[in-house]
């Protein structure tokens, strides 16, 4: 027979229980787990000994205490409380959440997947974002299941999820760098499958965590293949071409170049629009070609040449100077392992016009590299000057100045080079350029 307590006593007990819960919350935030544990346990005892129909309040306290046990690395006790929370009130979302988190921390990924999926279906009075969080964690747990047969069986649990949830879930997973989980949702379990999120809008996908995944995992050729297919689908489904960036300093084309170099596939770059000679630079001041020759995310010459070929075909310019006043081709040693790439790029590279400070109008026949010193270039310029080859001499002095600036040289050495080039410009009748060089010489 249930005992019916007087109203005043009920109100007093409720107030005391609420105070204990708040006390426990405060102690938990301060990482005073012992105090938090005492407060939640006292509140639970008070509740269970005096009330019969306060199931949600009890479920809240159990899930809170489970959180404290996790903070103390007492996973078995944390799991027991999380299970009790779900048993007492199946609609309480944090009970499911705690159960999933504890199971994952114990390495029980299949059980964690089931807990999160159950939370998605059974939790009540929660926002769509919270429901998406359950699906996100379910997908992460799923991707960590080690047995393929078990994965095939569990995958069916995703099939009843309405497609409108997957857009946010894909976004959540991308921000966490969970590209393997995204792969299963979009591409399915086998090469012939269609994933549950294959046609979901991918506008929320964040590509900034894609490259850390590539750098960290050092994927196989097979991973490169499915990752390329995955990115192509995501870009197509969400019209997210403008979002295809590693960071805010990138353009989509620079990112596509980097991705193509790392994966060995130009599929994403092939899908970029032709630009008709557009001088595209990123916020580093680099052209797409500088990504290949200067940043070099790969040293695979064949891959570099493939990517460069696509850029040339699409009309991207090789004639762009970076902030160090260097053309992309100038970062390549013409006699080293990149000789073929150098020969490919030099054929379509035009030098800057004469009115650009520091560069002559003639085609460069030598490009400064780490193996070409300032003194060597200056001596060659002096030789050409003595032979009255003024334009040729100016070219060598320009290259020597460029190497000096890149190596942060200064003082007398640069002053002499600017003075020598000024003399060349006077001989060529380029008085304005000669005056500019004379001013530069004095400033050094």
TrEMBL record:
The keyword Repeat applies. SUPFAM superfamilies: Ankyrin repeat, TPR-like. TPR repeats lie at residues 17-50. Keywords: Repeat, TPR repeat. Gene3D superfamilies: Ankyrin repeat-containing domain (1.25.40.20), Tetratricopeptide repeat domain (1.25.40.10). Coiled coil: none annotated. It comes from the Eukaryota. SMART domains: TPR. PANTHER family: STRESS-INDUCED-PHOSPHOPROTEIN 1 (PTHR22904:SF523), TPR REPEAT CONTAINING PROTEIN (PTHR22904). This is Uncharacterized protein. It comes from Tegillarca granosa (Malaysian cockle).
